[in-house]
Specification:
By secondary structure, this protein is mainly alpha-helical. 68% of the residues lie in helices and 0% in strands. The chain has a domain of 93 residues: Helix Hairpins (Orthogonal Bundle), CATH 1.10.287. The longest helix is centred in the middle third of the chain and has 31 residues. It is elongated, with a radius of gyration of 24 Å. The N and C termini lie far apart (73 Å). It comes from Streptomyces violaceusniger. Keywords: Cell membrane, Membrane, NAD, Quinone, Translocase, Transmembrane, Transmembrane helix, Transport. It holds the Pfam family Oxidored_q2.
Amino acid sequence: MHLAYPAVLAVLLFCTGLYGVLARRNAILVLMSVELMLNAVNLNLVAFDVWLRDTLHAGQALTLFTIAIAAAEIGIGLAIVLLVYRNRGTSDVDRLRDLADPPSAGQDPMDDSMAAPTDNDADQARRARRQTA
């Protein structure tokens, strides 16, 4: 088999994954696109290993390491996406650029102090909610 066939297929897979990373807004589709890019790299590693007739099969060994790392990456990535979805209600990447909570009314957005709320603050917030309801 000629080396051009798997190389062209790997380029097509990688470009498809790159398009998915750049164009998609859903975090799960972005993770799937990264996996597609890793599979394109794996295809190249195995194809060059076979083409060079490596006696140590280094390309295949690197492919196994890449598969293990990809499995760990997708597990952690999905856990993070599910946690963010549970907390924010969306997995849209554009909406998740700012992971910090927005400043409350009357608070300076440039203030970096992260003071813990006191009991008085909680009571005032409850009273304000009752008045608006």
